[in-house]
Structure formats: structure tokens, C-alpha cells
Amino acid sequence: MSVAEEIRTSGGRGAASSGTDSEPAARLRDLRKTYGSVTAVDGVDLDLPAGAVVGLLGPNGSGKTTLIRMLLGLTSPTAGRVELLGRDGTELEKALPDVGALVEGPGFHPFLSGRDNLLRAAACEPRLEGDLRAPVDAALERVGLTEAARRRYRGYSLGMKQRLGLAAALLVPRRLVVLDEPTNGLDPAGTRDVRRVIAELHEAGTTVLLSSHLLAEVEAVCTHVAVLARGSLLISGELSRLLASDGELAVTVDDPARGLAALRAEGFRAYLRDDALAVTEVDPPAVVAALVHAGIGVWEVSRRRAHLEELFARLTEEDA
């Protein structure tokens, strides 16, 4: 049985669930995108629970950015449908004022200052009118760009450009914020700032979709995850439930070598870790029974919660 199948059996699901009765911020149903003979996204079903922070994970070329572009109406799906904040695919533009997005890196005028670029972006916001300086200055302060606001954009580092793109996404309160690799080029302080902003958005009830390769950051800030590979959704759901389902059973025995052989003979996926047995099928009674039946002395049994990096590696290795 694969890791994904084990998680689904123990409570994970192929489409994310909010754990509440509220309507999701977005629904993707049987979503597919092809470019000639290349399938970028293949039949994805996914909900973004309202108020959740959803980590969208996958190797390079897994379809993450293509999926995000279809969600925002930047790319038309070959098949399937998208619902965004209660709007279907024919009227996504009506939902976009409530959506802030940073996708594939920001694009601004190189010879304007960061502040002037943000003022131009603010002028396009239908929810802003009158004096635009206050919301622009507030957004710049929120992402830590106040001191560099009057410098030309062409002189910005990659991390500063990312910060300015994030500021543009946060000019007005949003119901959904989509961030595609927002920490690209950021130093540790910038990464902490992005983590802080995401926490503030979550506390305010905003739904956040975060695409990232930094699994430790995703584990630190996300409430839900969805894992893509080769355009297909491997697994999704509440992060805490998925990690609990994928945890290990750590068993201390009197003879680790014999214990390992006994468990493998019974079909368990087991290996040695720090002179103890680690068993990925976390069914304690069955594991203990197999060891006792083989005459192995069992001293201690405990559960070890998996880390997101371990879960991601097992899922993507199985799909390779």
C-alpha cells in the first residue's frame, strides 16, 4: 500500500476539507490543462477551505503555477471548472478585487521608485479612492520597505522586489491571498517577515494559498497542504492529520536485528533507527504481537510524528 493510500485509509482525503461547514474559498473540479501533447495539470479536485493557510507543494514541473494561474483566470483550463469566492469560471473577474496575488515574481516599472510603482498599483484598485498615500505607506511598512521606498525599482535586490510584490497584494483587505514562492530571494529576516504577514492574514480570517519549496516554512505556517506531482494531486488535507497518519512507531527491543527480521517477515515496513525499530505502519497491537510471537522482548513503544519533509519525500518518490 502506498503512502497516499495509507493516509486516505486513516482519514486523509484526495480533496482538502476545512473541517468546518463553511463554503470553501475556492473549488477546483476535474481541472485539466494541456499544452499540445504535454499535460501540465491532470484532473485535479481540490478545495481551499475558508480561513485556512494551504501549502501547495510539488517538485519543479509538477503543475503548481499552472494550477494557480487557472485559479486566478490567468490561464483557461482545457477541461474542468473553477469556483473562486463563490464565482464560477465565467465571472472570475468579479471575485478578483477580493484576491491579492504574487505569481511568478512581481512586474513593475524599473525607472520608478518602489513607492511610485505601488501608487500606480493602488490607482487600479477598485476598492481604493481618494488619497492613496496612506494605504501605500501602510503596505510598504508592513513588508519592511519603508526605508527603500524612494529607491528606483531597477536597483532593488530580488528579495526587495518580492517584498514590493507582496505589498501590492496587500494594498486592501483580501478574502484570498495567493503567494507563489513569496520567499524567493529573501534573507532569513525577510522570510520571517513573510511568515509574520501570513500569520496576520490567517488571524484575520483570510484564506492563503502558499506555493513554496521551503517545506520547513510550510510546516510552520500552513494549516493544510496539497501535494502535486506530474500534474496530479497526490494527497491533500489538514496538515496535522496527514502528519499524524504518516508517523512512525518507535519500538525498543532486546534484539533489534532479530526484531527487524521478524517484522519484515510479517510484511511490516520496518528499519533500524538509533538502535530501535521504526515501523511506518503505526498499528501498535499488531507490531507488538508480531514481536512477542517471534520471542523478541519489547521494552518500549512510542509514536513519532512525521515531518512534512519526510511525508513529501515518500509521496514524490513513490510517484517517480
From TrEMBL:
Domain of life of the native organism: Bacteria
Family to which the UniProt record says this protein belongs: Belongs to the ABC transporter superfamily.
Organism field: Actinomycetospora corticicola
Signal sequence annotation: none
UniProt keywords, alphabetically: ATP-binding, Nucleotide-binding, Transport
Region (Disordered): 1-25
Gene Ontology molecular function, alphabetical: ATP binding; ATP hydrolysis activity
Domain named ABC transporter: residues: 26-255
UniProt name for this protein: ABC-2 type transport system ATP-binding protein
Lineage: Bacteria, Bacillati, Actinomycetota, Actinomycetes, Pseudonocardiales
Entry-linked InterPro entries: AAA+_ATPase (IPR003593), ABC_transporter-like_ATP-bd (IPR003439), ABC_transporter-like_CS (IPR017871), P-loop_NTPase (IPR027417)
Keyword ATP-binding: yes
UniProt key word ATP-binding: yes
